[in-house]
Specification:
The strands form 2 sheets. The protein has a 5-stranded parallel sheet with strand order 1-6-4-3-2, sandwiched between helices. Strands 5-7 form a two-stranded parallel sheet. The longest helix has 16 residues, at 10-25. The chain has 5 helices and 7 strands, in the order βαβααβαββαββ. The model has no long low-confidence stretch (mean pLDDT 80). The chain is an alpha/beta fold and 152 residues long. α4 (93-108) links the parallel β3 and β4. It has helices at residues 10-25, 49-54, 63-75, 93-108, 122-128, and strands at residues 3-4, 31-38, 81-89, 112-117, 119-120, 133-135, 141-142. Helix content is 38%, strand content 21%. α4 (93-108) packs parallel to α5 (122-128).
């Protein structure tokens, strides 16, 4: 595993410009960006009546929706790889494992995976360990504390 320091915004801008050019020419992009951040509930929460009419609150992405999206990306023949942008993930070890399994669908379909993160903790590093490349800016926080067990 190799860490490549790059500037913070340059990767997103380059991918955006490339995808924009591909969109105007009718081509499909070779790489897409998937942003992962937040808590990822297992199922999509149901909206109440007022919220379903007016869409007041923003709906959180769920593991169920992410699984469907990863299946679509894994079966896409035009796609060479995915850039996974790890944001502020608020997940435990079980959800970290579930996200790892979802991204491994891309790996099994022989897609190249590049992970970009501004900070990594143990849970997000576990997800990133699946990637072909991990890209971190020079100012990135890398906090790997480990796991311990105390006997009572």
């Amino acid at each position: 595993m190799t860490f490549y320091p790059i500037k913070r915004i340059s990767l997103e801008i380059l991918v955006f410009i490339r995808n924009l050019i591909a969109d105007f020419s009718g081509e499909k992009p070779e790489y897409i960006v998937v942003s992962l951040s937040g808590s990822y509930p297992v199922r999509k929460p149901k909206r109440n009546l007022i919220d379903s009419i007016f869409r007041i609150t923003k709906q959180k992405s769920s593991l169920e929706e992410l699984s469907k999206e990863m299946d679509k990306l894994a079966s896409a023949t035009w796609l060479k790889g995915v850039i996974v942008r790890l944001g502020n993930l608020q997940i435990d070890y079980a959800k970290s494992y579930m996200l790892f399994l979802e991204i491994s669908k891309l790996k099994k379909s022989k897609k190249k995976i590049i992970v970009y993160a501004e900070s990594l903790n143990l849970q997000s590093y576990y997800i990133a360990s699946l990637a072909d490349r991990i890209v971190l800016p020079e100012s990135a926080d890398l906090v790997l504390t480990g796991i311990s067990i105390d006997m009572l």
